[in-house]
């Protein structure tokens, strides 16, 4: 059966997801019990001498430990001592696991979300917020993304756009909306007399999910304090949500984009309210060009709202 361009794009996205996740071999025909294999490897490591570990600067190297006895039952095993890193969940949470490419990952929990809120609220400027995100290790998407996709445009702009998450092109360049959907967004802005120097563009999630998959609710919840603080620091007159995902995250609404688009709402920030509206994501318009007429109406309404509040 002949493959269509759509099928090829799906295959490319799947292979991209496997590569970003660290897959470096073919999958077997038979299922593997990874829990059993992990338990077996842990028992083998406990039976063999541990190699010497290179100590950080200023500390003497640690010698190999004596062979460990067989693991005791879980109820008798002492809890590991919490070190300095374990008391800083924003930088290196205690609930860690191995992520792609061997970096330590984290298990998202309420402690991580609270750490993200504290870190985001501490940022006094957009540059502070960028540095906070660069240092934040509480989101596993950072392990597979090539770089942080913070924002693009004018931080003093009256109009701010918020999407859901960056894609492949954005991940490579470190800027939001620079691929095909970003080029369409530029043309839409030009149609109402604007460009990137007169708007500010960001995403709810600043790291690309592997294979351009949808961010999980946990990933979105961890990143939400940072985009909220970003909106507060920009202080736009009009906030535009590109797609339903960003509107649902920041406004807490549950309507689909067809019902939500073109309807003016308010976003609470800095003790006041910001005029907000949702419109179709440019990526959706590339797949459904007939809907561009509705987005054109939305952009005309956005221009009118800016002129009214000028």
Q: What is the helix tally?
A: 12
Tell me, rounded to a whole number, the average pLDDT. Answer: 82
Write the CATH architecture name of the domain at 110-308.
3-Layer(aba) Sandwich
Beta-sheet strand percentage? 5-15%
Reported by name, the CATH topology of the domain at 110-308 is Uracil-DNA Glycosylase, subunit E
End-to-end gap: 58 Å
Note the main sheet. Answer: 6 strands, mixed
Q: What is the strand arrangement across the widest sheet?
A: 3-5-4-6-8-7
Order of helices and strands: HHEEHHHEEHHEHEHHEEHH
Counting DSSP E segments of at least 2 residues, the number of strands comes to 8
Can you say what the CATH homologous superfamily of the domain at 110-308 is?
Uracil-DNA glycosylase-like domain
Biased composition (Pro residues): 58-72
Biased composition (Low complexity): 46-57, 73-82
Pfam family, one: UDG
Enzyme class: hydrolase
Keywords for this structure?
310 residues; alpha/beta; Uracil-DNA Glycosylase, subunit E; 6-stranded mixed sheet; two-stranded antiparallel ribbon; 12 helices; 41% helix
Structural description of this entry:
The protein has a domain at 110-308: 3-Layer(aba) Sandwich (Uracil-DNA Glycosylase, subunit E). It is an alpha/beta fold. It is globular and about 75 Å long. The strands form two sheets. A six-stranded mixed sheet has the order 3-5-4-6-8-7. Strands 1-2 form a two-stranded antiparallel sheet. β7 (265-269) and β8 (272-279) form a beta hairpin. Mean pLDDT is 82; it is low at 51-56 and 71-102. 41% of the residues lie in helices and 11% in strands. Its EC number is 3.2.2.27. It holds the Pfam family UDG. Residues 46-57, 73-82 have a biased composition (Low complexity). This is Type-4 uracil-DNA glycosylase. Keywords: 4Fe-4S, DNA damage, DNA repair, Hydrolase, Iron, Iron-sulfur, Metal-binding.
């Amino acid at each position: 059966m002949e493959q269509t361009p759509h099928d090829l794009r799906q295959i490319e996205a799947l292979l991209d997801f496997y590569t970003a996740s660290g897959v470096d071999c073919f999958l077997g025909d038979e299922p593997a019990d990874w829990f059993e294999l992990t338990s077996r490897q842990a028992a083998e490591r406990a039976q063999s001498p541990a190699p010497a570990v290179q100590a950080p600067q200023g500390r003497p190297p640690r010698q190999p430990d004596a062979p460990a006895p067989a693991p005791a039952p879980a109820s008798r095993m002492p809890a590991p001592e919490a070190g300095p890193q374990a008391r800083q969940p924003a930088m290196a949470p205690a609930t860690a696991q191995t992520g792609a490419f061997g970096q330590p990952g984290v298990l998202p929990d309420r402690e991580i979300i609270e750490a993200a809120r504290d870190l985001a609220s501490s940022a006094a400027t957009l540059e502070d917020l960028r540095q906070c995100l660069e240092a934040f290790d509480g989101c596993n998407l950072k392990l597979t993304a090539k770089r942080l996709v913070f924002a693009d445009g004018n931080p003093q702009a009256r109009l701010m756009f918020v999407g859901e998450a960056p894609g492949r092109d954005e991940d490579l360049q470190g800027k939001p909306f620079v691929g095909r959907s970003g080029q369409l967004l530029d043309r839409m802005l030009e149609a109402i007399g604007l460009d990137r120097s007169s708007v500010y563009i960001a995403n709810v999630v600043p790291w690309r999910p592997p294979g351009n998959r949808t961010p999980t609710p946990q990933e979105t919840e961890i990143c939400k304090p940072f985009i909220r603080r970003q909106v507060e620091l920009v202080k736009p007159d009009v906030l535009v949500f590109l797609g339903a995902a960003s509107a649902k995250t920041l406004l807490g609404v549950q309507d689909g984009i067809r019902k939500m688009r073109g309807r003016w709402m308010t976003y609470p920030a800095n003790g006041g309210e910001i005029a907000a509206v949702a419109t179709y994501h440019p990526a959706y318009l590339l797949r459904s060009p007939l809907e561009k007429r509705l987005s054109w109406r939305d952009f005309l309404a956005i221009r009118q709202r800016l002129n009214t509040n000028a």
